[in-house]
Write a structure and sequence with these properties.
By secondary structure, the chain is an alpha+beta fold. Helix content is 22%, strand content 39%. It has three helices and seven strands. It has helices at 20-25, 30-36, 142-165, and strands at residues 8-16, 43-48, 56-62, 71-82, 86-94, 116-125, 129-139. It has a seven-stranded antiparallel β-sheet with strand order 1-7-6-5-4-3-2.
Length: 166
């Protein structure tokens, strides 16, 4: 729970077998983002990256056919980028043109805020490993927070698989 007892935050820390530069690139390179964005079974057919402070990236995750095969679009609008150290952005659900959708449109579960602040930090570790912590702020319930945490953990599992291939 956050400092505001009305909201719940997601905090996930993961250690990757990759140097900090490589872990950083996974968040900015469209080819990498297409490999890890979306929970297990989802694909990412589109990652239009405008990775700079003030820039907005548009990413798409496609659900597997057993879940309807729909495409869910998001934008990430960057407010702070400190190379190899920190990324801050606002995540919004949008249509394919980047127009913001109001919950509960597009299958957005109740309790997901219109804007979700994200902070990603990177810490270089010995042996060319990197500790990445992702924090998402402001979910209205523990249930929707846990749903987001599960999806994030699956995304990070897919990211780890990218590094394992190298």
């Amino acid at each position: 729970m956050t400092r505001d007892s009305q909201t719940h935050d997601v905090v996930v820390t993961r250690r990757f077998d990759a140097p900090v530069e490589r872990a950083w690139n996974a968040w900015s390179d469209p080819e990498d983002v297409r490999q890890w964005w979306g929970p297990t079974g989802f694909t990412c057919p589109r990652a239009d990256m405008d990775f700079r402070e003030g820039g907005t990236s548009l990413v798409c995750m496609r659900a597997p056919q057993e879940y309807g095969g729909q495409e869910l679009y998001n934008t990430w609008t960057y407010s702070r980028i400190e190379p190899h150290n920190r990324i801050e952005f606002i995540h919004r659900f949008t249509d394919q043109n980047g127009t913001v959708l109001e919950p509960p449109q597009a299958g957005i579960p109740p309790g997901v805020p219109k804007e979700v602040r994200h902070v990603i930090t990177f810490k270089a570790l010995d042996g060319d490993q990197t500790e990445v912590t992702v924090t998402e702020y402001g979910y209205a319930s523990a249930e929707v927070r846990d749903l987001s945490r599960n999806g994030l953990e699956q995304c990070l599992d897919k990211m780890a698989a990218i590094f394992a291939k190298a």
